[in-house]
Amino acid sequence: MRARVLVVDDELSMREFLAILLDGEGYLVDQAESAEDALSRMAQEYYDLVISDVSMPGLGGIELLGRIKTDSPDTAVLMITAFTTAEQAVEAMKLGAYDYIGKPFKVEEVKVLVRKALEKRSLVQENKRLKAEVQERFGFSGLIGKSKLMREVYDLIAKVSHSTANVLISGESGTGKELAAKAIHYNSPRKNAPFVAVNCGAIPDTLIESELFGHAKGAFTGAFADRPGLFEQAEGGTLFLDEIGELPLLLQAKLLRVLQEREFRRVGGGVSLKADVRIVAASNRNLEEQVREGTFREDLFYRLNVVQIRMPSLKERGEDIPALVEHFYKKYAIWSGSGEIITPEALHALFNYQFPGNVRELENLVERCVVLGSRVINLDCLPQSVREQRIAARPCSEMEIPDEGMDLQAFLDTLERKLLVQALEKSGGVKKRAAVLLGMTFRSFRYRLAKFGMEDEDQDAT
């Protein structure tokens, strides 16, 4: 995409000279005869670069620079003047000018400075984009869902992020424990320092100590040089110890010492190193039970368990399934457009499915449908196991007719009304989702609401 440049100078000959020069370099060039004219143009159009004279009638170039950096801070600015003074140059640089050119200038000098100014601006914008992407991915938006249980998770993350307390994240596999750890890190004062993650269960016992603490040259066969461990790599940031329950007892003792003393030694090293690292640990196992069994140190457990965040399973927060499906669909689908992305039948099947693999399994299901070429997620693209569970009827509690008899219609009406209310509650008042929960069409659901006089109870539901 061609960069857009605005040339500001009260001399017509200078404006036209620079415009011709820059147009020949492939830039889109506009001209302004005064600072006021430039500000008017910038209110209507975004410019990647402004080249401005310093001395102009009315508002001067230095004042224009200050306005530009206030109103459009990403725009690069080059200042040009025939009367260069050290004071002017210093003031311009303090206000954010990329550089300062004195007249007369060389054509090649202008070309180089324009190119470098635009390159620097692109690097700054790319850095901002990457930071925004990280925040988007690992801030609270990295965790999808508005259910009560997920709101409780968000509240805890918000409270612990700005502290230095160790955090223990518990929950089944696939519930998003690492996402929660990243959300804590990227919402904390340590967000610009490294986030380092390690799965304690994926590294052999003989290597885990060296992996965590590093090793000194000659510490063992093959240690040909000093090697920093994960604690050093995470300096100033966060170290995420996933599956902490798999850590051997000997390493648990060494980890406890690091948490207590805030220092460690490399394997084979004789110098203690400081550990400015926040620990976030996670486990899908019951650590309290491991403590009772003697496979996990009680003192380490309490050191880690300053604050515990429990990630709910997907079956506990089924109302988040539609939002998760939409999120993963947008992640994997190569086509764009509005409209239905999942049929009511398929969504109903997902609601009934138990999801032993939790959110990770749901993501895989959505990716599977996209890979199979389904523009709309339907029953045909879902695995047989999901479809079969939908067909299986859930058993009702056994009940007997009272000896004195019963009013069957009144009983059924009461039950039906109760289920309608529950569906609305679980769907957050969204009637279309509530209809899906009950396996009926939206029209049938509206009919039943009207039947029991409930249609006006939630006018905002859609």
Key words describing this protein structure:
5-stranded parallel beta sheet; 4 domains; Rossmann fold; single chain; alpha/beta; 462 residues; flat; phosphoprotein
Task: Give a structural overview.
With 462 residues, the chain is α/β, with parallel strands linked by helices. The protein folds into 4 domains: 4-133, Rossmann fold (3-Layer(aba) Sandwich); 142-310, Rossmann fold, CATH 3.40.50.300; 315-391, Helicase, Ruva Protein, domain 3; 408-451, Homeodomain-like (Arc Repressor Mutant, subunit A). 47% of the residues lie in helices and 12% in strands. It contains 19 helices and 12 strands. It has helices spanning 12-24, 35-44, 61-71, 86-94, 107-138, 148-161, 177-186, 205-213, 230-233, 249-261, 287-293, 298-304, 321-332, 344-352, 358-371, 384-391, 408-426, 431-437, 442-451, and strands spanning 4-8, 28-32, 49-53, 76-81, 99-102, 167-170, 195-199, 238-242, 263-265, 272-274, 278-283, 307-310. The strands form 3 sheets. Strands 2-1-3-4-5 form a 5-stranded parallel β-sheet, sandwiched between helices. Strand 1 (4-8), helix 1 and strand 2 (28-32) form a beta-alpha-beta unit. Helix 2 packs parallel to helix 3 (61-71), helix 13 (321-332) crosses helix 15 (358-371) and helix 17 (408-426) packs across helix 18. The longest helix is centred in the N-terminal third of the chain and has 32 residues, at 107-138. Residues 143-371 form the Sigma-54 factor interaction domain.
